[in-house]
UniProtKB/TrEMBL annotation:
<dbReference type="Pfam" id="PF00005">
    <property type="entry name" value="ABC_tran"/>
</dbReference>
<keyword id="KW-0472">Membrane</keyword>
<comment type="similarity">
    <text>Belongs to the ABC transporter superfamily.</text>
</comment>
<dbReference type="GO" id="GO:0005524">
    <property type="term" value="F:ATP binding"/>
</dbReference>
<keyword id="KW-0813">Transport</keyword>
<dbReference type="InterPro" id="IPR027417">
    <property type="entry name" value="P-loop_NTPase"/>
</dbReference>
<dbReference type="InterPro" id="IPR003439">
    <property type="entry name" value="ABC_transporter-like_ATP-bd"/>
</dbReference>
<dbReference type="GO" id="GO:0015424">
    <property type="term" value="F:ABC-type amino acid transporter activity"/>
</dbReference>
<dbReference type="GO" id="GO:0016887">
    <property type="term" value="F:ATP hydrolysis activity"/>
</dbReference>
<feature type="domain" description="ABC transporter">
    <location>
        <begin position="26"/>
        <end position="260"/>
    </location>
</feature>
<keyword id="KW-1003">Cell membrane</keyword>
<dbReference type="InterPro" id="IPR050086">
    <property type="entry name" value="MetN_ABC_transporter-like"/>
</dbReference>
<dbReference type="GO" id="GO:0005886">
    <property type="term" value="C:plasma membrane"/>
</dbReference>
<dbReference type="InterPro" id="IPR017871">
    <property type="entry name" value="ABC_transporter-like_CS"/>
</dbReference>
<protein>
    <submittedName>
        <fullName>Amino acid ABC transporter ATP-binding protein</fullName>
    </submittedName>
</protein>
<dbReference type="InterPro" id="IPR030679">
    <property type="entry name" value="ABC_ATPase_HisP-typ"/>
</dbReference>
<keyword id="KW-0029">Amino-acid transport</keyword>
Amino acid sequence: MSAVANPTRAAREDTPRSPQAGAPVVRLHDVHKSFGALKVLDGVSLDVGPGEVAAIIGQSGSGKSTALRCINALETIQQGTIHVCGHAIHDPQLDRRALRRDVGIVFQSYNLFPHLTAEQNIMLAPTCVKGMTKAQARELAREVLSHVGLAEKAEHYPEQLSGGQQQRVAIARSLAMRPKLMLFDEVTSALDPQLTGEVLKVMENLAREGMTMILVTHEMAFARKVASKVVYMHRGRVWETGTGAMLDDPQTPELRAFIGNGL
Ligand SMILES: Nc1ncnc2c1ncn2[C@@H]1O[C@H](COP(=O)(O)OP(=O)(O)O)[C@@H](O)[C@H]1O
Ligand SMILES: [Mg+2]
């Protein structure tokens, strides 16, 4: 379907997408992580399959961001295993550059370079990391910007864009690397409701196109509607997991209290 809608995509793809339909894109098994004496992940196991959208919810400090950072090898773990797009993250020999090509991550802060236009921000990695020519990278930047509804903002600087638009540029920048997996850590938390809506819309479209995604979010309505798997973390553990319907029928007092406070 996407090949018809976007015929240039297959031609540009320099690594084939995972052919093992059904094999998990992400698998955490009994992951333990401490910062000094503080245990932050206490035996986390989680599978995310191709095209799945997993929403991680939970109180502040429950280990959500740390879990995402471990998945992307931004933190090392003390025990357990993590496999992501065929990479063994726990392996000291991990090829981080190869991992970075497969996994995109977007944070609450957009981290755009203020002295570069939207388009130039997006062109940076394809030219520096993938060795694209400027012309190729510009064409790619235009394509991913139109994908997030910002075709007309290519030559704007970050300060000329709203927070929601800047976040969409940050998402487009990740998409330009053609990731197999996208991680989102509270990407709408700094935005007001209207701008939140436009960013969530972009994420919902990505989900519909089949992108495998793990997102940490406070947006319960979004989790209920878009996520194929909702993961409630509490004290560094996967406390409860299920489909969006789990939010309507929590099985643990902790999730019940969390939802009660959150809505
Ligand atoms: N780099 C770090 N050094 C020390 N403690 C950290 C570090 N990162 C996170 N923590 C602590 O780990 C716990 C979990 O943090 P985090 O994963 O950010 O939670 P969440 O994203 O669910 O709010 C918190 O108590 C936090 O203070
Ligand atoms: Mg966090």
